[in-house]
Write a structure and sequence with these properties.
Ribosomal Protein S5, domain 2, 32% helix, globular
C-alpha cells in the first residue's frame, strides 16, 4: 500500500508542489515565463539571434542552433551566492545544468526549421528550494513555445520547429520513502535522487540518477521512474493548459 504519511510541507509522497506559470515576465524577450515549483521560482526567457555559431559556419552545418544559459541569482539562496563572473569562470554545476537544458530543448526542436538563427534560452533562478534544473527545463519549453509563436506571427519563421513538448521532474528516496518533486530539505539529505526529462509523448530525453552514500536496486529504480512518469504526465497537462490559455485559440 502506498505510504500516505504527509511530508514536511504537507504533500503526499507522490504529489507535485504547486506549479504555476506566468507569461510575459520579461517584456524584451521574444518569449518568457516565470515558473514556480512551490518556493522554487525561475525566470525562463527565449530570444532569437539572426546568426549561427562560428563552428556551424566553419563546418558547413545547415539549419539553426539552440543554446541555454543558467544562473542562480545572488539572493536566490539563504546565504548569498556569488555570481560566476566574480569568480572569473562558471562553476561545474552551472555548466552541467545549462548543457542539460540545451540538450532537453534540442531533443524536441527541428533545428533545420529554425533557419540561420540561434535561439537563446536564459534561465535565472530567483528563489531556490530544490529542483531548479527541472523547473528551468519545464519553463524553458514554455518560453520557447511562446517565442516560436511570436516569430511565426511576425513571419520570421515559416513553421513551428517544435516537434513535441518537454518537461522535467525530480524523484528520490528520502527517509525510506519514494518522493516526487523534492524540495531542498529532502534533496540535500536524499539517499537516492534522480532528475528525469521526458517529452509530452512519453519519450525519455535524459535520466540522471545517483545514490548519495547509498545504493538502490533495479526494482527501486524502476519504481522511481514510474513515479517520475506520473509527475511528468501531470506537468505536461499543466503546460498544455497554460499554452492553450496563453496562445490565441490554443494554436500549436
Amino acid at each position: 500500500m502506498p505510504d500516505s504519511t504527509l511530508r514536511t510541507d504537507g504533500r503526499h509522497p507522490a504529489q507535485l508542489r504547486p506549479i504555476t506559470f506566468e507569461a510575459g515576465i520579461a517584456p524584451h524577450a521574444t518569449g518568457s515565463v516565470l515558473v514556480s515549483f512551490g518556493s522554487t521560482r525561475v525566470i525562463c526567457a527565449a530570444m532569437i539571434e539572426p546568426k549561427v555559431p562560428a563552428w556551424m559556419r566553419q563546418q558547413g552545418v545547415k539549419g539553426g542552433w539552440l543554446t541555454a544559459e543558467y544562473s542562480m541569482l545572488p539572493y536566490s539562496t539563504l546565504d548569498r551566492k556569488a555570481r560566476d563572473i566574480s569568480k572569473g569562470k562558471l562553476d561545474g554545476r552551472t555548466v552541467e545544468i545549462q548543457r542539460l537544458i540545451g540538450r532537453s530543448l534540442r531533443a524536441v526542436v527541428d533545428l533545420q526549421k529554425l533557419g540561420d538563427n540561434t535561439l537563446w534560452i536564459d534561465c535565472d533562478v530567483l528563489q531556490a528550494d530544490g529542483g531548479t534544473r527541472t523547473a528551468s527545463i519545464t519553463g524553458a519549453y514554455l518560453a520557447t513555445r511562446l517565442a516560436v509563436q511570436k516569430l511565426i506571427d511576425e513571419k520570421k519563421l515559416a513553421e513551428n520547429p517544435l516537434a513535441d513538448s518537454v518537461a522535467a521532474v525530480s524523484v528520490g528516496m528520502f527517509g525510506g520513502r519514494e518522493l516526487l518533486d523534492l524540495n531542498y530539505l529532502e534533496d540535500k539529505d536524499a539517499d537516492v535522487d534522480a532528475n528525469v526529462v521526458m517529452t509530452g509523448r512519453g519519450q525519455f530525453v535524459e535520466v540522471q540518477s545517483s545514490g548519495e552514500e547509498s545504493t538502490f536496486s533495479p526494482e527501486q529504480f524502476q519504481s522511481l521512474l514510474t513515479l517520475a512518469q506520473k509527475g511528468l504526465k501531470d506537468l505536461s497537462a499543466l503546460q498544455t493548459a497554460f499554452l492553450t490559455k496563453s496562445l490565441l485559440g490554443g494554436k500549436w
